[in-house]
User: Fold these one by one.
Assistant:
Number 1:
Amino acid sequence: MISLSNQLYQSLFVYYLESSEGWKWEENSIVHHEKLIKLQEYGKSYPKEIKQINGVRFCCSQAFFVGKGNDGTRVYVGLGKDGYERAVKRLPRDFCVCFAEQEKKVLNETNITQSNNVVRYWFLDDESDKDWLFLILDLCEETLKEFVDRSSLDDLTTNAPDIIQQVLKGLADLHREPNPILHRDLKPSNILRDVHGNWLLADFGISRILTAGSSTHQSEQRGTDDWRAVESSHPLNDTTDGGKVCYKTKSDIQVAGIVAFYIVTKGEHPFGKNPDRLRNLLHGNPVGLSMLKDSVLKDLLSWMLSHDPKDRPSAKEALKHPYLQPAKQQFEMLCKVGNQPEIKTHDIKSDVVRKFNSDRKNWTFLVRPDVLKYLSTDPLKGKTFHYKSSWTDCLRLIRNINEHWHDRPRPRPKIFYLVGDPQEFFLNLFPNLPVKVHKTIRSCDWKERVELKEYFI
């Protein structure tokens, strides 16, 4: 009797959860909160209007609409039996069968399922409706386009490093060997923010999975105007390949650079305004970069927007740029470079040494004379070093101070406390030195050195 009663109770409980009166809801979304309340109320009043797919309830009504895409695609809020909020992407069957199947295939790839910066896929229903396909995804709060539109330029400047970093992390996951995935339609409306502030890459309907060892996919032009890389914007050879264009992992990188510029300028394009935009892109002329005042950011975007794909960084390399690295990492890089044998010996035969010292600006003029004298003195050995005006000497000083700063004997003079933390002192004194060093090292084989690799690759 007890067992029968338990079974009856469980059956009634399941019925309650599955009925319109018993909607379970793990409340998370802020932006779509009201729509989810309305969805539950509507389900109680009009249960026959609610559609259920793979345990997710939704209604394709304007009241529950949250976004749209190309070819009649619409997105609605949904609520799973487990109580978790979902997005239901409705696609017209006539136009989108191939796109939906491709998106399902791509979103099930290990590169994506293990990523924290790609939207999570749950289910594709291609059987329940003769006119529509339904793709179930995690519900997000807004697109990057919406975020940029509603944010001030100051807020965008503050948030840009975090957003750009997360976009690049998503691309690094997509591009991971042995079977890299090309997004091919990266743009602000395909980058989503979830309720926890994570930025996620989305919309993989035209993405392609490269075979092992392949670096390029050729096809008819896909994607969206103004959001294509240069090699994806014009045919390779009109007469021999049917007007096909190229897509590479580095194509996604150039478009990510366009997206990054869009963020930091609140909606501008690095290749200018139409009708000149395409011409500027094809000629490698990012005219918009001149409006950037932040030289560190400008260096990163110049690199990502390089005309030749070979000159662009990979996503992993771009993530190592000083603009996206914490101060600790930047300072460690300066110290490690300052400890290289060519820097120690002022090797004039070294191309790197010559590049560093081609900048004739005298760094010693930026340091108070009494501070420089103190920094140049080794109190333990009673020896004073003479640091010259070359930037290699500057790097050597930074390395030496960092290595021996806390070895200085007590009592310590006031000037010791004036300098304080060497990392903070030198990065404030020479704010552009990390990017100067990074730009020089990333273009030569020093970046492969064991002690430097972690800062560049």
Number 2:
Amino acid sequence: MDQHRPSPDGADMDDASSTIVNLSRPDDSAKWDVDQNHLNALTAMGFPPLSAFNALFYVKNESVDAAIEWILNHQDDLDVSSDDETRQTEPINRNNLLESSSSSLMNNEENAHDLYKMVFVVNSQLSMGTGKIAAQVAHATLGLHRLLLQQQNRYGESLLEWTEYGETKIVLKGDNTNHLVDLENQAINLMLPCYMVHDAGKTQVKAGSCTVLGIFGSVNQVNKVTGKLNLY
């Protein structure tokens, strides 16, 4: 769903594809402090610190999810040159970025085990439509969340941390049913809570089809299972 989000200087940013992001905004960013928890979360997930910092600046520290969405929607803009011949190399508030992110860069491995995320692996072999995929990911989200709530003694603390740090959710591409089942077994072996959606077969796919696999856990542990998969 597209959201109308104002830019830091008040200009509208309705059309991301037509908006050129100016990465040199020292006056604006000098008055703004990055949310260190969000920045740590993004860098621990593998996003470059500059991209993470810029994203948090433009979404005004809204959430980790909002920053991820901004990065994915502005990957080309992050490389925009300040003119036709010279690539822009100075980030917004560069000194502040280096200072605020230095600890996360040095301690990514240490911090990552304390950060949690949900990932959802879509069975791409089924060739589901966009609406169908959205519905199946929603089923996986609710099913996985119910599972965590039912075992609060075991997962309550990690679920709370996940909630406090932006409820990070990533949708990834799986090859086929066998691939999803293999990933599910890997998650189970690592004692990660997971939830496989089996479709009722009312639209597009056969009843019982494995459509989406949801996995929850620390960033480090989940990445052992899905770290090499592509975004959907």
Number 3:
Amino acid sequence: VSIAAHELRSPLTSILGYLEMLLEGDMGPLNPDQTEALTITQRGAQRLLSITNSLLDLTRIESGQIDLILTPVSLAMVVEMVVHELQPQIQQKNQHLTLDIPPDLPPVLVDQTRAMQIIGNLLSNASKYTQPGGKITVRLSPAEEEGFLQLAVADTGIGIAPEDQHHLFDRFFRAKNVYQTDATGTGLGLHITRSLVELHGGRIWFQSELNKGSTFYVTFPLAEDPPSA
């Protein structure tokens, strides 16, 4: 799987690069039909690259080959960076996003790239499985566990049925009701997210009610009091 994913990623990266050049007009002007066709192609290539990266992460995690570069980081800054990246997706569905971030929170000890991946997956899922016009809230607060900061991502989306909740972090698992939406997925995102959280020494859990929404919680270790190895 790892070799196949590597072989797929290189040509996909090249394809996306050329598509971006075409869409920006670097190779000449485009008519509306050409722009639409290239945009659809770009989305498909981005989707394939996302799946490829997930497969690579899965194989690295299962073989113990992920090395975290831990540095003191403002979790509020990481949240804001992720929100900026996902703002088009949220705005496209006319969803209402609220950030509840107190000032002067202490820094956390994380791999910033992986922290962005964790938060990005949770926020992307919240948007993906919440109806247009729905509400999403991202909240930071001190965790009940000493030495940790807590992230909560809440939504008013489709929720998760009780019989699916025990399997939600299993690899390749997708809840039955997601097929009632047009949301796509591989069933790897939450499995990888949990693995990355645990590699940081944190915890992830959720509360959910079918047709009412879900809240996912993650704890990150504080930089001033990192967990012992």
